[in-house]
Amino acid sequence: MLSFLFEACSEESNPQPQPEPDTPSFFIRGADLSLLPDIEKYGIQFYDKNGDVSDMLSIMKVAGCNTVRIRLWYEPADENSSFEQVRDFAAKVKAKGMDVWLCIHYSDTWADPGHQTTPRAWSKLQLGELKDSIYQYTYRVVREIQPLYVQTGNEVNDGFLWPLGRISTGGSFYALIAEAVKAAKAASPTTHVMIHYAGLDGAAVFFNQLKYKNVDFDAIGLSYYPYYHGKDMSYLTSVMNSLGKNIQRPVVIAETSYPFTLQWYDNTHNLIGIADQLIDSFPASPEGQKSYMMRIRHIVEEIEQGAGFCYWGGEWVAYKGPNATNGSPWENQTLFDFEMKALPVLDVFKD
Predict the structure, then answer these.
(1) Closest CA to 185 of 154, 157, 212, 147
(2) Does any domain span residue 285?
(3) How far apart are CA 90 and CA 110, in angstroms?
(4) Residue 343 to residues 118, 227, 340: CA-CA distances in angstroms?
(5) 22: which DSSP letter?
(6) Distances from the Cα of 208 to the Cαs of 133, 220, 246, in angstroms?
(7) pLDDT tens, 247-257?
(8) Domain containing 75 — which CATH number?
(9) Under DSSP, is residue 104 helix (H, G, I), strand (E, B) or coil?
(10) What are the helix (H) ranges across the chain?
(11) Stretches in the chain below the pLDDT threshold 50
(12) pLDDT digit string (tens) for 8-54?
């Protein structure tokens, strides 16, 4: 205690300038296209902005997209987001000259702030066994896929691998996430490890805790959807700027999207469908969608530690047809219109 007081007094009498955070060494212009392998099985034809038929990956590459985010589930109900599918899709992405961003959910299905279900195969493990399993699994998938970026968990606001890794109930999240990060770095020292938080409120406390616990991650990922996380984009700027300076890590908008229409195409309920869900200055139109994303990019570029953005669900068109009741709830927020033609928003990916 005396040593601490002495150091504190010395710092007050002889304040030392704090080093400026390093400028991020990367800028992600990304899109999550996780469902594309399944969509391609339906034989959907896509069109570039000129109206010419092309495959989606080629359209994205030409537009300037430099990174494709791919989610990975542990043992999913079918092949979608399985390791084999993700591995093969990642190879296709790399063959197109784009980087791979691997998003590990540590679940057999969707993981998000309200759902972080431990994989069935791990559900009876004790903490020590779970730490070993998360290390071995993370090491294996990162070693085989060799992504440039990897998320160790998806939207882990209240931890992951519940109940053992749930923060709010006193779980061992920090010990578990540390194992995942260590494994990723051991498997691929050139891979940037990102930890992902959904929203803005509470983000400072969350990432300060990670810093305090000495979790050795490389980048901050944030989800930002106006209808979930608030329509004040100046607040978004403030939070990102503060996180970058205080945590001294690059900050990425890991998920965002915006509708190009409020209309429906298939018979599946859309998550966005009324004007109250929009930001007033950005209408639900092709140009409104583009303007929103341009603003997102400008925000990231303007802050000192801004390191990129990723559009979520850009591929999730109504690929099961207009009568599908189990089709796409995201069809009006994709990067392609109801005729499967590339929308003006693709300009946001330009280098």
Answers:
(1) 147
(2) yes
(3) 19
(4) 38, 22, 9
(5) P
(6) 26, 11, 8
(7) 999 999 999 99
(8) 3.20.20.80
(9) strand
(10) 2-13, 36-41, 56-63, 83-95, 127-145, 173-187, 203-212, 226-229, 233-247, 286-302
(11) 1-21
(12) 333 333 444 444 445 678 899 999 999 999 999 999 999 999 999 99
Read off the tokens for 34.
């996780």
Cα–Cα distances (Å) from 257 to 155, 312, 334, 335, in that order, read 16, 6, 8, 9
**Residue 46 forms part of a structural domain:** no
Instruction: Identify the domain containing residue 115 by its residue range.
Output: 24-32+59-258+277-313
Residue 13: phi and psi, rounded to 5, are -80, -25
Q: Note whether 176 and 201 are within 8 A (CB).
A: no
In a domain, 232, yes or no: yes
* CB-based contacts of 171, cutoff 8 Å, min separation 6: 159, 162, 163, 164, 165
Position 217 in a domain: yes
Residue with tokens 């691929």: 188
Taking the C-alpha atoms of residue 160 and residue 326, their distance in angstroms, rounded to an integer, is 28
- What would the two tokens of residue 330 be? 């995201």
Integer Cα distance of 37 and 314 in angstroms = 13
Number of domains within the chain:
1
CA distances from 66 to 101, 154, 284, 303 (A): 10, 21, 26, 20
The secondary structure of 118-148, three-state, reads CCHHHCCCCHHHHHHHHHHHHHHHHHHHCCC
Q: What is the pLDDT of residue 167?
A: 98
CA-closest candidate to residue 345, choices 302, 307, 305, 297? 297
- Its pTM stands at 0.93
Our separate counts of H helices and E strands in the chain read 10, 10
**Helix, strand, or coil (residue 184):** helix
